[in-house]
Design brief:
mainly beta; globular; 3 strands; about 0% helix; three-stranded antiparallel beta sheet; about 80 residues
């Protein structure tokens, strides 16, 4: 069965406040129960949890849970 990833937007109180705020992290979760963290979509690319950090757990094409691993659970076109 192919696992589908789910986007979770982390919201905090005061989201619509007038003052400027840092963007909220767009966290990616996957697996059957959507409890497996797959990284952050809009974090800076040097962040440990960014999917754009090629040296981090979630951005590396070699990590098993990375969306960039063509042979892993979440980056593969085939079902696991």
């Amino acid at each position: 069965m192919k696992f589908v990833a789910c986007l979770i937007l982390v919201l905090t109180p005061g989201l619509c406040a007038a003052q400027a705020q840092a963007p909220k992290a767009l966290l990616l979760f996957g697996a059957k129960d959507y409890k497996t963290s797959l990284g952050c979509l809009n974090c800076v690319d040097t962040s440990d949890i960014s999917v754009c950090n090629e040296f981090g757990k979630y951005g590396s094409e070699y990590q098993s849970d990375s969306i960039w691993n063509a042979y892993g659970t979440f980056g593969s076109d085939t079902t696991h």
